[in-house]
Amino acid sequence: MENILEALSFPFIQNALIAGLLVSMASGIIGSLIVVNRMVFLAGGIAHTAYGGIGVAVFLGLPIFLGASIFAVLAAFIISIITLKHRERMDTFIGLMWAVGMAVGVVLIDLTPGYNADFMSYLFGSILAVSQNDIYFMATLLISIIFIMTFWYREILAVSYDSEYANLRGINVRFFYTLILILSALTVVVAIKVVGLILVIALLTIPVYIAEKLSNTLYMMMILSGIFSSIFTLIGLWFAYEYDIASGASIILVSACSLFLFLFINKIK
Amino acid sequence: MSIIEIKNLSFGYHKQKILEEINLEVEEKDFLAIIGPNGGGKSTLLKLILGINPVKDGSILTFGELPKKNLSKIGYVPQNTNVNTDFPIKVIEVVLMGHIGSKRPLFGYGKEETLCAMGALTQVGMEEFSHVKIGELSGGQRQRVMIARALCAHPEILILDEPTASIDIDGQKRIYELLKSLNEYITIIVVSHDISVIMQYANKVVHVNKRLNYHDISTNTKGMTHQCNHFCDVEMFNLFKEVK
């Protein structure tokens, strides 16, 4: 207990907690949308393409979030165009973007003179290195997501549930589909900071999977996912601090164990 | 007065013709069945009437105007309602989607909209399921919810694409009885494979296979269905022989 109180007095731990909670709530909401729209593979593609953006940002000396965001949003646009035009080839294109994005990132980081910062931190997260600016970025994103979801809930629900019907009722399906992808891209970018791009998919899906079983509306699913995700993140961070292990992996393992526990309890009920 | 008027309509993708020289008039309170082989152009014809596909050759007028102008007067029940059954959505929310396109409150759903949606659910006999997750319903129940969704917009024409495909026989009967009662004040257009069922309810049948053949059946079969409860393809074949 003393340990925890002592830890909480460090500003970087406080930042990590705030960032963890902000990203958990954002990924709960957006993860729900990704799962119900069957976009998990797309989100994976966006996450890995974003690594190319990180490489570009490092190479040009730009803020990392900016580079990653631009690349991720670009990837979201490309995926949106491909899904609407060449749906049958989508997996090929996403696989391509996935790999090329990573390759661009790795090469550019190699080429950056004198740059030897821990590039593992982007693969597995570096929540303890969250800055004040990062937190502002995350908070702005979360507020935007909540605002968009509240204002356009019925349209987004209709597009996700039955896009053909939504189109017939005059909803601009393409606009909302692209909007969902862009929000996913930005959420993936901030989640990279917390758990890293390799683990981002787990953060976006595990809490959502549990929430899906417990809710019969989309907003309930979003709220529950956000809550579960926050709890897993906090417990994961505590383990990371206590045993001095990587925070991203710790958060994911806590989530996965909770999922197995949940499935087990569900089974014996 | 005809509420749908199709004149010399042809339609195709690339160079392949799907529909050729279609002429059709639908009058108020008609119960029109569209039959025909798979790939014969039935769904394409619906999409043209609904304004999803643009008309290039010939003309379609709904209520005397272009289809795009009267979308709110046409309710549509899509073909496959068995997809996405894991989706966390309550029956009432599905029905509320029917209001999309009309005026909406800034956030959430208006009180009137909810009342109207409940009314539509009552009409199809599904009001007690309003807060059940859509995936927990049977295929037939789900189809009735989709009809309620279409009714929500107070349509004057209700278009259904294969409403009874993959639904058990009791469910099918309930849906057709529902359509029959709705037909007292709404025009019904239904695409179906099940000719024997259609014959009991429809007053007009068109067969679409690139071209359209029109059958008025309002007189010759209606009397017969009162005589017996059973009417299947065999009876139809017998009927056919009698006529011959």
Question: What class do helices, strands and sheet pairing of chain A give?
Answer: mainly alpha
Oligomer: heterodimer
- Sheet of most strands of chain B: 6 strands, mixed
Q: Which homologous superfamily in CATH is the superfamily of chain A?
A: ABC transporter involved in vitamin B12 uptake, BtuC
Name of the level-1 CATH class of chain A: Mainly Alpha
- CATH architectural designation of chain A: Orthogonal Bundle
The stretches of 5 or more residues of chain A where confidence is low (pLDDT under 50) are none
Gyration radius of chain B, to the nearest Å?
19 Å
Secondary-structure class of chain B:
alpha/beta
Describe the biggest sheet of chain A?
none
- Determine Rg of chain A (CA atoms, Å): 18 Å
Shape of chain B: globular
- In which order are the strands of the major sheet of chain B placed? 5-6-7-3-8-9
Annotate the secondary structure layout.
The complex is a heterodimer of chains A (269) and B (244).
Chain A: H1 2-8, H2 11-36, H3 40-60, H4 64-85, H5 90-111, H6 120-124, H7 132-151, H8 153-161, H9 163-168, H10 173-195, H11 200-214, H12 218-243, H13 247-268
Helix pairs in contact in A: 2-7, 2-10, 2-11, 2-12, 3-4, 3-5, 3-10, 3-11, 4-5, 4-10, 7-10, 8-10, 10-11, 11-12, 11-13, 12-13
Chain B: E1 2-13, E2 16-27, E3 31-35, H1 42-49, E4 57-62, E5 74-77, H2 91-96, H3 111-123, H4 139-151, E6 157-161, H5 169-182, E7 187-191, H6 195-201, E8 204-209, E9 211-216, H7 222-227, H8 233-243
Parallel strand pairs in B: 3-7, 3-8, 5-6, 6-7
Antiparallel strand pairs in B: 1-2, 1-4, 8-9
Helix pairs in contact in B: 3-4, 4-5
Protein model, in words:
- The complex is a heterodimer of chains A (269) and B (244).
- Chain A is mainly alpha-helical.
- Chain A has a single domain, classed as ABC transporter involved in vitamin B12 uptake, BtuC (Orthogonal Bundle), CATH 1.10.3470.
- Chain A contains 13 helices and no strands.
- In chain A, helix 2 runs parallel beside helix 7 (132-151), helix 3 runs parallel beside helix 5 (90-111) and helix 3 (40-60) packs across helix 10.
- The longest helix of chain A is centred in the first third of the chain and has 26 residues, at 11-36.
- With 244 residues, chain B is α/β, with parallel strands linked by helices.
- Chain B is 32% helix and 25% strand.
- Chain B has helices at residues 42-49, 91-96, 111-123, 139-151, 169-182, 195-201, 222-227, 233-243, and strands at residues 2-13, 16-27, 31-35, 57-62, 74-77, 157-161, 187-191, 204-209, 211-216.
- Chain B starts with a strand and ends with a helix.
- The relative contact order of chain B is 0.17.
- Mean pLDDT of chain B is 82; it is low at 222-227.
- Classes of the chains: A mainly alpha (269), B alpha/beta (244).
- Chain A binds chain B through residues 36, 150-151, 153-155, 157-158, 160-162, 164-171, 212, 215-218, 220-221, and chain B through 50, 52, 71, 76, 78, 84, 86-90, 93-94, 96-98, 100-101, 104, 106-109, 131-133, 149.
